[in-house]
Every structure is written in structure tokens, then in C-alpha cells.
Amino acid sequence: MTRGRESNEFKMPVHYPRYSKSEYQDMPEWMVDRLLAEYGLPTHGDLTQKRHFAMGAFLWPNANKKNV
Q1: If you ran DSSP here, which 8-state letter would residue 19 be given?
Q2: In a structure prediction context, what are the per-residue pLDDT tens digits for the chain, which is 68 residues long?
Q3: Is the separation of the CB atoms in 17 and 58 below 8 Å?
Q4: Residue ranges of the DUF7722 domain (predicted)?
């Protein structure tokens, strides 16, 4: 694969991202691009679209809530 080009297949890095919703909302574009590219996910669109895509891909419902 050539550097700087998107891959068409999902990659599973060693660590799963553990950012909160507010961290994704404040994340700079270069960081969102790097995170998505690390997993082989598309990095096109504007920053709002990329943040929304990253939150949908990496945030799980109730992930930060403790079981009662």
C-alpha cells in the first residue's frame, strides 16, 4: 500500500480507541483523519461528517455507564 492512500479493508490495531463523545467533538481534523486511517476507514468529507462517523464507529451506547 502506498503511503497517504486509503485502504479498502478494515484494519484492527492492537488498541481500541477510548475517546469520549466530548473528546471526539473537540478533536482536530488531523487527529480524526489519523484515527480513521489507522482502522482503514474513509477519511473524506468535512470535519463534522468525519467526527460523526468516528463517533458512530467507536462509541458504544452505555459504554461509559457502570452497571447498577
Answers
A1: -
A2: 445 555 566 666 667 888 999 999 999 999 999 999 998 899 999 999 999 999 999 998 775 555 44
A3: yes
A4: 16-61
Residues contacting 35, CB < 8 A, separation 6+: 17, 27, 54, 58
CA dist list (Å): 6 to 1, 27, 33, 67, 68: 9, 20, 11, 38, 42
Residue ranges making up the domain that contains 33? 21-58
Residue 8 forms part of a structural domain = no
One-letter amino acid of 21: K
- How far is the C-alpha of 33 from the C-alpha of 40, rounded, in Å? 10
Let me know if residue 51 belongs to a domain: yes
